[in-house]
């Protein structure tokens, strides 16, 4: 037990070597640019101020995003994806895969799961003893299941996934800006120092060239390092921008996820705009800041979102249809009542007219009869 623990501690310590290397390079680049270039080499005060302001802006954003990428803990599956104690013991006792799958099928009846293994089985992690949510994978380096795992990056000594993928993208973006800015502003002094190095002595160089000082090494080496990192970061940053636009992870790009209906490399895609919002959130003012602005539960599959949206739309349509039908029925009832009332009023009016006419007719007849009787008597 003790040797295993010591070995694990050694592995954890060695895993920080790439991070320490990057930190040392960044610290040296800060010294070389600010002290050796801006303070001791650049003669113009205005140029110094402009370079220093933009350099520190890119430096702060680069360090901030790098820090967040390193020290943001990967998101793990919630408790609802853990088997209950009784079912977990039953799962461990079962030796047949068919019986184990039956246990998993019962446990996942009410869970939002759409992805399967290549054989169509429920994805279960025996190491973490947890049902894997969609887009969740086990990281052997971190020894845990990570939601929407993209990859384990040795340069940040952390898993890049749901909780820090935005920070990782911004880290690539600002590191590229940082290297590009250094390479672009150092280029003219790099050329001057390079020309100076090719001459035999500093006394033979023209007056407009820089003197041969100890800053020469820092400026020359700074340009080479910035250009080298710029090229490597540009390719990686472009690739991950493509992944963001497709709503894929690095794992899903190499191995298409398997759904109930089969594998589909575009199974998580919601459209370009919504795919970006899945990573950066729906508030654009926070997109360029390394703060957590992801959409809630965006690690879930897009089919789930589609089903929920479709269900909401159907319910809304049914409600609207019921309201419309109710309004039509009420309107028909009102119209019918009005018609009936009009008919009743008309009938009453007609009846009144008939009665009045009858009374008048009876009066006339009675008058005629009385007159006839009177005449006859006379």
TrEMBL record:
What PROSITE patterns is this protein classified in?
DHHC (PS50216)
Which cellular components does GO assign to this protein? membrane
Which Pfam families is this protein grouped with? Answer: DHHC (PF01529)
Q: Which UniProt keywords apply?
A: Acyltransferase, Membrane, Transferase, Transmembrane, Transmembrane helix
Taxonomic lineage: Eukaryota, Metazoa, Chordata, Craniata, Vertebrata
User: Which residue ranges traverse the bilayer?
Assistant: 15-42, 49-67, 167-191, 217-242, 353-374
Can the keyword Glycoprotein be found in this entry's annotation?
A: no
Name of the protein in its database record: Palmitoyltransferase
Q: Name one GO molecular function term.
A: protein-cysteine S-palmitoyltransferase activity
Query: What Enzyme Commission number(s) apply to this enzyme?
Result: 2.3.1.225
Q: Which residues form the Palmitoyltransferase DHHC domain?
A: 123-254
According to its UniProt record, which reaction does this protein catalyse?
Answer: L-cysteinyl-[protein] + hexadecanoyl-CoA = S-hexadecanoyl-L-cysteinyl-[protein] + CoA
Q: What InterPro entries does the annotation carry?
A: Palmitoyltrfase_DHHC, PFA4/ZDH16/20/ERF2-like
């Amino acid at each position: 037990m003790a040797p295993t623990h010591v070995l694990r501690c050694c592995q954890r310590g060695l895993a920080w070597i790439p991070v320490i290397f990057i930190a040392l390079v960044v610290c040296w680049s800060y010294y070389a640019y600010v002290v050796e270039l801006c303070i001791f080499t650049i003669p113009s005060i205005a140029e110094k101020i402009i370079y220093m302001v933009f350099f520190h802006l890119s430096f702060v954003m680069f360090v901030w995003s790098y820090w967040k990428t390193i020290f943001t803990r990967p998101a793990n599956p919630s408790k609802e994806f853990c088997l209950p104690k009784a079912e977990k013991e039953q799962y461990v006792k079962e030796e047949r895969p068919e019986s184990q799958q039956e246990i998993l099928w019962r446990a996942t009846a009410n869970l939002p799961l759409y992805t399967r293994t290549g054989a169509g089985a429920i994805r279960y992690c025996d190491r973490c003893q947890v049902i894997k949510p969609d887009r969740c994978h086990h990281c052997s380096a971190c020894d845990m299941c990570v939601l929407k795992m993209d990859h384990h990056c040795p340069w940040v000594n952390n898993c890049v996934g749901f909780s820090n993928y935005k920070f990782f993208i911004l880290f690539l973006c600002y590191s590229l800006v940082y290297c590009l800015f250094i390479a672009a502003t150092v280029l003219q002094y790099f050329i001057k120092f390079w020309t100076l190095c090719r001459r035999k002595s500093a006394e033979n160089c023209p007056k407009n060239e820089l003197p041969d000082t100890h800053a020469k090494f820092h400026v020359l080496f700074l340009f080479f390092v910035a250009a080298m990192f710029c090229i490597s970061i540009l390719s990686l940053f472009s690739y991950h921008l493509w992944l963001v636009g497709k709503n894929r992870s690095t794992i899903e790009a190499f191995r298409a996820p398997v759904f109930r209906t089969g594998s589909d490399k575009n199974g998580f895609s919601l459209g370009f705009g919504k795919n970006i919002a899945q990573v950066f959130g729906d508030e654009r003012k926070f997109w360029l800041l390394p703060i957590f602005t992801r959409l809630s539960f965006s690690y879930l599959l897009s089919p789930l979102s589609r089903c929920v949206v479709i269900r909401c739309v159907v319910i809304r349509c049914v409600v609207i249809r019921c309201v419309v039908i109710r309004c039509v029925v009420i309107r028909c009832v009102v119209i019918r009542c009005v018609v009936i009332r009009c008919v009743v009023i008309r009938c009453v009016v007609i009846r009144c007219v008939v009665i009045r006419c009858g009374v008048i007719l009876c009066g006339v007849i009675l008058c005629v009869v009385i007159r006839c009787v009177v005449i006859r008597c006379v």
